[in-house]
Design goal:
Blueprint: H1 3-10, H2 14-31, H3 43-46, E1 53-58, H4 63-66, H5 82-88, H6 93-98, E2 117-124, E3 127-132, E4 138-143, E5 159-167, E6 173-175, E7 188-194, E8 199-202, E9 206-208, E10 213-222, E11 228-237, E12 246-255
Parallel strand pairs: 4-5
Antiparallel strand pairs: 1-2, 1-12, 2-3, 3-4, 5-6, 5-7, 7-10, 8-9, 10-11, 11-12
Amino acid sequence: MSFRMLLRRALPSSALLVALLLGVTVRVEAQFPFPSQGPALTPKQMAPFDPSGYWVAVVTEDWQYRMMTPKKGDFPGIFLTPAGQALANSWDPAKDEANGDQCKSYGAGAIMRVPTRLHITWQDDRMLKVETDAGIQTRLFHFGPPTPPQDAAPTWQGYSSASWEGLRPFGFVMPITAGAASPPEEGFLKIVTTGLRSGYLRKNGVPYSENTTVEEYFDSFKEPNGDTWLIVTSIVSDPVYLAQPYLTSSQFKKLPDASGWDPAPCEAK
């Protein structure tokens, strides 16, 4: 028997091969159906979890740097450039108070590490509002194409662009599109913040500059006992004062109501 005849017997015909492949495709699509296209959902309707409500920070790491003001020059775990080290070592809280800069450690680069309570609400269908009782700060998360105001002055909280991101078939991570017929069961919130005033990563003057970008990921889960948690992973990148990005993960526990909500102004030390 010739080699060609052996191949013909060993391999299915092209038509059969196509049929087999189509059969596999049908079975895969049946097991992992792609979302059908329906009326476009707003970011509020697309939310894979509900971030609204009252939350309290649960400080389980870096306690001595978050619950108390560290000494000048004490900044382990944060890798600063020479310029950043010089600025951190010259920290003067009295000067910050005199200049009206008491809120330097309450900007978007640090506010989620501050021992605080959060009040998260939907300002409208395309904007999340995050209020803190520590420092009385307000952050606005804008969904949609990034459109920061042109030539706007830097602020403590800057301009934050938001997007829902979620799991798709075969484990690929892709943005959740507005054409989805219903919100996914899993997903997280991505926030990118720019347009910041220079501030402090820690209360003892560890600096970040106006060139800083803060990238955050909000995720939520519920424990068997019913407790709901919000995990905020933050990556602070600054080419001026940081020798490498500063990564943190902060935990917040959901509260049943506004009990304990106690707005207090910024403190320089």
